[in-house]
Design brief:
Radius of gyration: 27 Å
Mean pLDDT: 92
Distance between the termini: 13 Å
Order of helices and strands: EEHHHEHEHEHEH
Largest sheet: 6 strands, mixed
Strand content: 5-15%
Number of helices: 7
CATH superfamily of the largest domain: Ribosomal protein L4/L1
Low-confidence stretches: none
Number of strands: 6
Structural class: alpha/beta
Length: 206
């Protein structure tokens, strides 16, 4: 089992924690991780892009000039793609980009992402994250104590003081144990997680 240090909010080491290998020590499957990221980005796409083909553009019903004898190239419509204001060739149409990933594949991808963060020493466990008031400055101090910049902070419960204090820091995102995903784990340089959140993740995914 992987053993990681546990820190307090002052950045001091206060103990250690054994991580469950069933979640934090699996064999990393890069293909599934890639598929999970692609799926999330694809599912977030609105798919509302639209342009008109030559059949949808208004006008162009009359032949611009006669077929022969003008010295110009033959033309059938002023709304053909080569004309200014004409239709678009193979124009994009609204579509659904989302696709399905099996539950077991999703879980395996998430475990792989968590394992990679533990292996890279970018998985920081904090005994607890509690703030008396909503104060961005105080939360930034905690991150500085932990020597963390761009971070995903995983909480066990929706502590509004912590969530709202972190919200105004561009390089930080908070997430609950039931909302973590592969994309966020890989996007942020470091994963900061509370001890209680680690227990919940192990309980759900082990």
């Amino acid at each position: 089992m992987a053993n990681v240090a546990v820190f307090n909010m002052e950045g001091k080491e206060v103990g250690s924690l054994e991580l469950n290998d069933a979640v934090f020590g699996v064999e990393i499957n890069e293909h599934l991780v890639h598929m999970a990221v692609v799926q999330q980005l694809a599912n977030n796409r609105q798919g509302t892009q639209k342009a008109k083909t030559r059949s949808e553009v208004r006008g162009g019903g009359r032949k611009p000039w006669r077929q022969k004898g003008t010295g110009h190239a033959r033309q059938g419509s002023i709304r053909a793609p080569q004309w200014t204001g004409g239709g678009v060739v193979f124009a994009p149409v609204p579509r659904d980009y989302s696709f399905k990933l099996n539950k077991k594949e999703k879980r395996a991808a998430l475990k792989s992402a968590l394992t990679s963060r533990v292996n890279e020493k970018k998985f920081i466990v904090v005994d607890e994250l509690k703030l008396d008031e909503i104060k961005t400055k105080k939360f930034r101090e905690v991150l500085n104590n932990l020597k963390v910049g761009k971070a995903l902070v995983i909480l066990n419960d929706n502590d509004q003081n912590v969530v709202l204090s972190a919200r105004n820091i561009p390089a930080v995102k908070t997430a609950l144990t039931n909302t973590i995903n592969v994309y966020d784990i890989l996007k942020y340089d470091t994963v900061v997680v509370t001890k209680a959140a680690v227990a919940t993740i192990e309980e759900v995914y082990a």
